[in-house]
């Protein structure tokens, strides 16, 4: 019974985080005008090389906090990381974000989950007056250069501006008739949306989009693009 209550409480907490992030994405349309400059799939793909470089730099940060070298960051290592980044997060907030990003339930944050966690902190958390998500290894310019373009891509795909991606709008955007030479085959666009749509509900929040988008970008120049 206790286990069920804990699970229910966690689900409620994660649903609240999802709602908070959805509201944040609606508000972000005013703060990220760059999404208006995106016109087609090619304009997104052109951002991939710079994003890969930024992700590789973040991987170096991840490895520096993975003290035991097991490829994951546990709760204690994460706390040290957030302390170094001078983020004023409560114990409850840290646990909430940790559980929200540990999507495979491995009790450890892997690198792709670490990227998502940092991005969510960047968007949702209130940094202390001393810092804005920076450390000796990772300054604000690196954070902005990686996460701001990703937010802009989400906003570009979120045509109705409601903070979630609608399947019909995403497919229409990726197959924009104004750019016939850049259109993706319908089976590809459907597959890309399904990679994001974990619940198969036809709606995708920023967290799910972020996990999928990181995979599309890849970490190596030889990785396949969308």
What's the gist of this structure?
The protein is built from ten helices and two strands; from the N terminus they run αααααααβααβα. By secondary structure, the protein is mainly α. The chain has a single domain (37-126, 134-217), classed as Recoverin, domain 1 (Orthogonal Bundle), CATH 1.10.238.
CATH superfamily: EF-hand
Strand order of the largest sheet: 1-2
- First-to-last CA distance: 45 Å
Q: Which CATH architecture?
A: Orthogonal Bundle
Helical segment tally? 10
Q: Which stretches are low in confidence, meaning pLDDT under 50 for 5 or more residues running?
A: 1-7, 127-132
Give the class from helix and strand content and strand pairing: mainly alpha
Summed over residues and divided by their number, the pLDDT gives a mean of: 80
CATH hierarchy, class: Mainly Alpha
Multimer state? single chain
The largest sheet is: 2 strands, antiparallel
Strand content: under 5%
Helix content: 55-70%
At the fold tier of CATH, the topology name is Recoverin, domain 1
What is the tally of beta strands?
2
Identify the overall geometry. Answer: globular
How many structural domains can be distinguished in the coordinates?
1
Written as H for each helix and E for each strand, in order along the chain, the element string is HHHHHHHEHHEH
Radius of gyration: 18 Å
Protein name: EF-hand domain-containing protein
Pfam families: EF-hand_7
Keywords: Calcium
GO molecular function: calcium ion binding
